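Changelog-adjacent note: as of this version, every example in the card shows the full chain rather than a window. The one below runs 148 residues end to end.
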Amino acid sequence: MTQPDYYAILGVEPTATPSDIKAAYRQKMRDVHPDALIDMDDDVKTDAEAEVRLVNEAYQVLSNEEKRATYDQQLIIPPADGQPFRVKYQRPPDGLDKTTQRILIGILIIFFLIAMVPVVNLAVNGAGSNTRQTPSPIIATPSTPPDN
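Full-length structure tokens:
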């Protein structure tokens, strides 16, 4: 017997957060709970009770981090030809992946190098030398006194 797809039962993706799983569980319980089916036949209520048990089981597994990790490692997804194979599903880590880390480090190096350009110019031109052009002093010429 194959294990049920708990993600499909709750209607969430394998990358769903715990809050998404909880919200999907509550919505599904509102839809299938036997107490909400007052005017239904006993057969329908029996089917609803079985579905409630399945929804509860799915929520119990997916809401517990350890059980969810074990379930994800044993997840069976049938391919198009109908022959089952095992897929080890791993949720994305909480931090950044290696590629993103490398890109951010590269950007930081570029900003560092851009910030170092003035320092390098000082080192090349000499830290103590006066590299600025001093303006020539303005020589005031005496104006001619007005004729009275």
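Structural remarks: The CA atoms of residues 60 and 134 lie 79 Å apart.
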